[in-house]
Amino acid sequence: MYDVVPIKAQDTFLIDKKNKRYLDLRSGLWNVSLGYQPDIYSKISKEFDNLLTKQLPYLDNHSFKHPIYQETAETILKFVGKGFNNVIYTNSGSENTELSLKLSNYINKKGSKSKILTFKNSYHGTFFGGMSVSGIDQELNQIFNPKYGYVTFLEYPTSIESENEILKKVNLICSDYDVMFIEPVLASAGVYTTTIEFMNKLIKILHKNNVIVVFDEVATGFYRTGNRFYFNQLDYIPDLLCLSKGINNGITPFGCVCIGSNLNEKLKNSVQSMEHF
Q1: Confidence of residue 138 (pLDDT cuts 50, 70, 90)
Q2: Where are the beta strands (DSSP E) in the chain?
């Protein structure tokens, strides 16, 4: 923890009580991707004031309809682009992982126990599902049990040779698995990425073997890789897209899971009932 106590912020700087300025190179842990711009906060303050004067700070979206829910979903889907046509709201990136695990279990469970692929040194949150599929925290989280499902951790490739080895392994084993969680650029582990060709081949293999592909773009979304989202560079679209943090510049706890068209059809046609909450 830094020996700094910020009391306000401006532009790209954090400012302490002695008016000393610190350049925020952490972007609020990936949250504040638009910076601390006065015009942003002025607009948001007006919106908050409007809601609070109506004395309606919270509305259960499972019990009531409200235009803001529909407008926000339409805005997100338009921004995300082709391939996604439904949104489920959450409170955080960690909750996104829980929801994605439930959806995969509900739609695509092939055996008696959920089988999950993920990368070593990946990070997907702090709830029980996230602790189960985050490779980076496995030693730290050994005291928390039971873990969710049966999880296989793959080495994250660091060369063309290792990319080919991982693809061979995935091709051999993945038909038995239900879902793979992918952090397209390892963030908490440092900054590690693969070739675009590898990611295309990986998703192609997974889809061929009926494995749901979850892209966790909490760290990489909203232009942090140069594109709106990392997957925009690819030939294939993930089935579930997890967004949080930069989705609203870190102003309130908020996240969502965008659901791909094919998966959404399966949900609509299912005769089972499912409840995230």
Answers
A1: confident
A2: 6-10, 13-16, 21-23, 84-90, 115-119, 150-154, 179-182, 212-216, 240-244, 255-260
